[in-house]
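Quick one: structure for this chain?
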Amino acid sequence: MRSTLVRRSVLSASAVSLALLATACGSDKADTKADAKPSAPASSQAPAAKGKTDAELAKLLVTQADLADHTFKESTPAEAAAGATATSDKPECKVLVQAQAFVPAGTPSGTARTKAIATPKPAAGTSPEEAAKAIAGALGSTATTVTLASYEAKGAEEAFAAVKTASTKCAGGYAATQDGETTKITKVTPGAAVTGGDESLPLTVELDADGEKLTTQLVLVRKGNTVATFSSLSLAGTAEQPKVLVEAQAKKLG
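Got it. Here's what it folds into:
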């Protein structure tokens, strides 16, 4: 049984400047003093980063137009609702379970989701038999869910940090439960390095599904106050890191 599991601008610190001006003039006939008065504070505080809405994020999602060799499908509300039940036997690991189940860490101002799968096409001149094999092989291709989450203020950095911390604390394994089904996660290790965004976190998550070892990929990329999460799996058992998808999405985030 393959578990359904295996699927938030830094506020600048206020700078305060206060100048005091005092002038004293004296003569042998009279003393004149100018009252010392503080100047107006030259305080400037950058406004808190404003989080994006669902609609704004939807326009930033990677699409078929960005990657012709991928097939995209919209995520359903039911999938997001199912992900809300994701939890772990170890509280510190719950955020990792949620990341693989459409649920972003923290409290985002908006979210958007999509699903993509690489669809290799047979080369020109391929025989019907070879084409059929290519199509059959595509069933084992890596499928990836992409979740964009935007946050107010420091939310994105905090959400990213929460997952990063969990990946270290939970490296030795934990149990993940969703919709009443429990899967044993055996190991969490660093994944292949990825580029893009202000910071990234690539992870390889291994699990035991009814005695069968599966290797999945989890990648987080933060750009400003938006965090993109990529959760990948393959029916063949070993998912490949969705490098092309990650790079295309990071590029759209700016």
